Every structure is written in C-alpha cells, then in structure tokens.
Amino acid sequence: ATLATQSDRQTLVHLSDYIAFGGEELVIIAGPCTVESRSQMETVATQLQRAPVQALRGGAFKPRTSPYSFQGLGVEGLEILSQVRSRHQIPVVTEVMSITQIELVAAHADMLQVGSRNMQNFDLLKALGEVDKPILLKRGLAATLEEFVMAAEYILSHGNSQVVLCERGIRSFDTYTRNVLDLGAVVALKQMTSLPVIVDPSHATGKRELIPALAKAAVAVGADGLIIECHPEPEKSVSDARQALSLDDMVQLVHSLHPIAAAV
Ligand code: PEP
Ligand code: MN
C-alpha cells in the first residue's frame, strides 16, 4: 500500500479557508497560459469574478518547447500574481520548474504546479514534499497511471499530503488534437487513490472549440475540478493562443457546468 492509495477517505486539498479540492464544490482554476502584464491579469481577475472561478492561473516560469520562445516574466510575473491575489482576494496557482524556484514561488502563490515535463523530476517532487503549500501535479506527456501515482507518492512520502492530480492529455499518434484527453484515467485515479483529480481540457486538446464539451464531460465523470486557459484577447496570447478561450466564453462555460456538477 502507498500513502496515495491507503486511505479510503477522500483527501481534501485546501486552497484557502473556504476552498478545497475533493469536497462537494467543483473547483475551477482559470487564466492565461502565461502572465504577460499587470493589466492583463487585472482584466482576467475582474472579468472572471462574474463566473465566478475559485482560483486564477498564469505561468511566470514557462517550460517552453523551444529555448528561443518567451520563457515567462519570472519574478515580475510572480509579483503581478501576488498583487492580483491580494487585490481580488482570490488564490493563484503557478508553475515551479526547479528546486531553486520553490521558495520564491511559494512566497507568491497559493498552490504550486508541477508541469507535465517535470512529473518525474524526483528531486523536485521530494523537495515539494517539504513545502507547506498544496501541489498541483500534472500527468506526464506519456506517463502511465502507475507512474503518475508514484510521482504523487514522492511528494506525499516526503511529508506533504496536499496533492491534486491533473489529467492533461497524453501523447498519441493523431496530431489533430494536441494530446488525447484520457477521461478513463480520471475515473480510474479516483478509484485507485484518495487524492482529488482535476482535468485540463486546454492542453489536452489544444483547440478552444473542443474545450467546453470536454470540460462538461470531465465534470460528468467525476472530476473534482478543472484548469482552463483563457485570455482577454485570445489570439494575442504569447503562448498557447490556439487553445485560449475568451473571458466571456470562460464565464459562460462555468455557468454551463453547474447543472452537470449538481447532477453527479
Ligand atoms: C501549463 O499548464 O501551463 C502547462 C505548461 O501545462 P503542461 O505542463 O500540462 O504542459
Ligand atoms: Mn499553456
């Protein structure tokens, strides 16, 4: 038995005093792929309050496929996130790519994201086991469920019980969608482990027009939450523009999820 599989009680992962993954309420994290400017994040926070969403996302340190692509605003991006966080009283989630960034990211964010490319960075996972912040662990690009659960186990066994698993699509032969959203994995992970499981339909599909239907499907199969990319001017996103929803579409999507969540 492992810590991830041991308990038959659902683990609650707390994002704030009022928000927890794995409870009754669906937790929706929304925001741009990359933090681009203060005004961008202000607009996102203001507009998404209408939804509402439970947390904002935005990358300050970006794991770009090409080293020549924009790598994120770094510390400046984190400062923008923490200002928006306190002005709007909303938790923020952002990626940490290395052990050396942990202290800084933990000082600005409510939840630390481990990206797909780092799912088996075991030294990073061990270090995150010693952090007093919840961790959003994304499934590796081609990780089996066993590997995914064992990655979570690295964090749990080093002392941090607050881990949320995120299915974000896996590599396959068809390039029509960016990845293949594995909803079977969501159901299986909920049965295999006591950890909350959320879905990222943005990176799973890579195409904005596919996101609303798959977000609804994810809620219908029992996902505890969603993380979705959106932008004030989707076409102008510095990264992942093709999959960014407009803020209006994001608000509308959140509203359409409530009846499904209530029925599950
Ligand atoms: C992201 O969420 O910004 C991201 C880079 O996702 P992934 O690690 O799933 O590719
Ligand atoms: Mn992205």
TrEMBL record:
Keywords: Transferase. SUPFAM superfamilies: Aldolase (SSF51569). It comes from the Bacteria. Its EC number is 2.5.1.54. InterPro entries: Aldolase_TIM, Class-I_DAHP_synthase, DAHP1/KDSA, DAHP_syn_2. Residues 19-255 form the DAHP synthetase I/KDSA domain. GO terms for molecular function: 3-deoxy-7-phosphoheptulonate synthase activity; aldehyde-lyase activity. Pfam families: DAHP_synth_1 (PF00793). GO terms for biological process: aromatic amino acid family biosynthetic process. Gene3D superfamilies: Aldolase class I. PANTHER family: PHOSPHO-2-DEHYDRO-3-DEOXYHEPTONATE ALDOLASE, PROTEIN AROA(G). This is Phospho-2-dehydro-3-deoxyheptonate aldolase. It comes from Coleofasciculus chthonoplastes PCC 7420.
